[in-house]
Amino acid sequence: MRPPAMLFLLNEIPMPTRILYVEDEPFLSKIVKESLESRGFIVHLVEHGNDVLPAFAQFTPDICVLDIMLPGRDGYSIGQEIRQLRPTLPIIYLSAKQQTEDVVKGFEAGGNDYMRKPFSMEELIVRVKNLLQLAQKGNSTEAAPASEPVLRIGKFAFDPVRQTLKSGQNERQLSFREAQLLQIFAEQPNTTIERKFILEAVWGNDSYFNSRNLDVYITRLREYLRDDDSIQIITLKGVGYRLLCHL
């Protein structure tokens, strides 16, 4: 019989991260899968769009890495359905498409990150780890017995823990990063918040790619809040942003 102390130690060992990886290019998928597995990840590879959701249900991943152009179904529609099934699951889109509108579409389809092909394995692994850390922080907050109060933003009620934005009977489920960004604004209304501060708080660094991501998220928050004319997220060029609202 194993000593109780040993059982305790075994329970403390973190489980390997499970990645659902969707890619139809055989050469690329082989390299990426083997590289991730060599770093200790458990990787389930799916090559056809129609097979993704059944695999998702059986594999129960910790994160999804989805190519966009797939046979059967495109990655955007798959990501949207996964987002409905598990609202806080991290999703990274991969694509050879280079246009800004493709990046925007990726975030609108529920993505937490978007990587253009070709990409380096080191960068992919860093992005995977970063999203997992953010998701873990979010889960820890949700599991805490003491919840944060609902924040008022004009006529909206914002719940940072549940990641919801409510106006009357209409309730919107936010992504983890949308909720992070909105919380920064809601906790400091009518105050100038530096762009660099936001980037480091939400993404961990102020790289050019993350800066473009921030622009996309600001656009989305403005769209969510547009039903209240008293609310504005204004851009202070070269400085940052300010949430103008009546409390």
The gyration radius over C-alpha positions equals 20 Å
**Count of β-strands:** 12
* CATH overall fold name of the largest domain: Rossmann fold
What is the CATH-assigned architecture of the largest domain? 3-Layer(aba) Sandwich
Unreliable spans: 1-13, 141-147
What is the arithmetic mean of pLDDT? 84
Strand neighbour order, sheet with most strands: 2-1-3-4-5
Structural class: alpha/beta
Please provide the ordered H/E string of secondary-structure elements.
HEHEHEHEHEHEEEEHEHHEE
CATH superfamily heading of the largest domain: Response regulator
Highest-level CATH class of the largest domain: Alpha Beta
Largest sheet: 5 strands, parallel
The gross shape turns out to be globular
Structure, explained:
The protein has helices at residues 4-12, 26-38, 52-59, 75-85, 100-108, 121-143, 176-187, 195-202, 208-225, and strands at 18-22, 42-46, 63-67, 91-95, 113-116, 151-153, 156-159, 164-167, 170-173, 192-194, 232-236, 240-244. The longest helix is centred in the middle third of the chain and has 23 residues, at 121-143. Strands 2-1-3-4-5 form a five-stranded parallel sheet, sandwiched between helices. The protein has a four-stranded antiparallel sheet with strand order 6-7-8-9, covered by helices on one side. Strands 10-12-11 form a three-stranded antiparallel sheet. With 247 residues, the chain is of the alpha/beta class. It has nine helices and twelve strands. It folds into two domains: 14-142, Rossmann fold (3-Layer(aba) Sandwich); 151-244, Winged helix-like DNA-binding domain superfamily/Winged helix DNA-binding domain (Arc Repressor Mutant, subunit A, Orthogonal Bundle), CATH 1.10.10.10. The model is unreliable at 1-13 and 141-147 (pLDDT under 50).
